[in-house]
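Predict structure. Chain length: 169.
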Amino acid sequence: MIDLKFCPNCGRDQLQWDGEKKWNCTNCDYVLFHNVAGAVAVLITCGDEILFTKRNQEPKKGKLDLAGGFVDPKESAEETCVRELFEEMEINVDGDQLQYLGSLPNTYEYKNIPYNTLDLFFEYKVPEKFEVQLEVSEISETLWIHKSQIPFHDLAFDSQRIFLQSHFK
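Prediction complete.
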């Protein structure tokens, strides 16, 4: 983040990064915040199994992931779950059936920019396992994994590992 040097307000190369969340221009006192981004992760469960995806893009290509993504402007977390599940796997979800489970902070590095996120975890229970229509640009495959067999070392993101370990270890 320290590579950003030019102020978007006055154009001078006097933008200073505070090391955590904001830049300040020493010339015109402009302040630019790098706020936390909201993201969702959905545990689609069938009995004692969870549907995982395998990432088909960076960051963490090839690692296991839960379905989900970033919250868009003017969108609730539940609306994000519904949208992301449809975009990634063409699953139509009833947002009223989502159960909020908790949240954890995370860092999502994309193209050398670390984004601080607040990952919101939801559960969506299904009565039977199903096949998925994948958005292959994002997901290479899906896997149903028993809660007791989750390969924590192969999860893409620390927040998911910590959350799942605390719930299913």
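Summary: Residues 77-89 form the longest helix (13 residues).
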